[in-house]
Amino acid sequence: xxxxxxxxxxxxxxxxxxxxxxxxxxxxxxxxxxxxxxxxxxxxxxxxxxxxx
Length: 53
Hints:
Layout: H1 9-31, H2 34-41
């Protein structure tokens, strides 16, 4: 790996992508409206749209 020029940038880029993804995910979770979270969490329990035979 030491013979490849520019290889040291790849771990930095992957760390930045990882960090940015989880910061954005944390920001979305914190800023999500409580009504939306409540509605989405009740989707598995909602039987009104159940089209089983």
